[in-house]
Amino acid sequence: MPPIDAEPQAEAQAASHACTASHDPHDPRPLGVIVLGRGSSGAAAREQLQALAESLRALLPEARIVIAFADRASPSLPEALTQCLPCRQIIVQPLFLPGENALLRWLEKVAQRWRHQQASGAEALAALPPIVFAPGIWQQAALPELLARQIAQAQALPDVTQTTPERWQHDPAAWSTIPPHQRHALLCLGPRCTALGAAALWPQLTERLRACGKLQRGVMALQTSCQYPCNHGPLMIVYPDGIWYGRLNEDAIAHIVDEHLQHGRPLAQYRIHRTGQEPDGDA
């Protein structure tokens, strides 16, 4: 039988010790709570999650409550975990519907990776707070009763003819017009790229394109869900050139906009693949 690796065993014991220590009634550190939702391109998701967090702060005044997004917005889960420090324990409360078991399993891995990025060695890991994922909102037994009350109250609300604009049948002319762009810049804002910092790159991409006059007129910048080679994230694909860029940061976005999207010169230092070519062995 091969020898047991002592370091992982020590780290597991350290994590177990941290979980036990978190229940110390004399621990003065606050409880950390992360309200976890799904992001969107508009402001509504953030505003709604922030409003809910404010209400929770009134109910749990001694807790440190922050918001996070699984995708498409920031702060990401790793950023929110850092915001909770120092605390005695971190509770992650998923709020999205429907629940995705694969996504939740992956988010638990994100939390584990965050722990190991914060500290190395059993002693340092033991000093970090334990992280617990609470049951999702879809698993709450009281949810059907709450929805039934909402449905009963909704029966007294006005018909849509009284709540929609008078010109509801008219759409903006731009919705029927193909923008005069030469390229698509497809930035991945799926869960894995979001955890790697992609959400913070989106406003930088659009603002830099706008500053050089390329937004819409020359480049259509679009958000996508998962592009799949997640370990190379954050990812962006530029079409019709077929250039896949990976491991992006703010400097990379600035260079790609200035060189590739503005002047048509792809940058080899950020490229991980080109459509039509065989992927590299280490790509």
Q: Can I get a quick summary?
A:
Helix content is 38%, strand content 16%. The protein is of the alpha/beta class and 283 residues long. The protein folds into 2 domains: 29-138, Rossmann fold (3-Layer(aba) Sandwich), CATH 3.40.50.1400; 178-274, Glutaredoxin (3-Layer(aba) Sandwich).
SSE topology sketch:
Elements: H1 6-21, E1 31-37, H2 44-59, E2 64-69, H3 77-84, E3 89-94, H4 101-118, H5 122-126, E4 131-133, H6 143-154, E5 183-188, H7 191-195, H8 198-211, E6 219-224, E7 236-239, E8 243-245, H9 250-263, E9 271-274
Parallel strand pairs: 1-2, 1-3, 3-4, 5-6
Antiparallel strand pairs: 5-7, 7-8, 8-9
Helix pairs in contact: 8-9
Examine the secondary-structure arrangement and name the CATH architecture of the largest domain.
Answer: 3-Layer(aba) Sandwich
End-to-end separation in angstroms reads 35 Å
Secondary-structure-derived class: alpha/beta
* Largest sheet geometry: 5 strands, mixed
Q: Shape, please?
A: flat
- State the name of the first-level CATH class of the largest domain: Alpha Beta
Instruction: Output the strand order for the largest sheet.
Output: 6-5-7-8-9
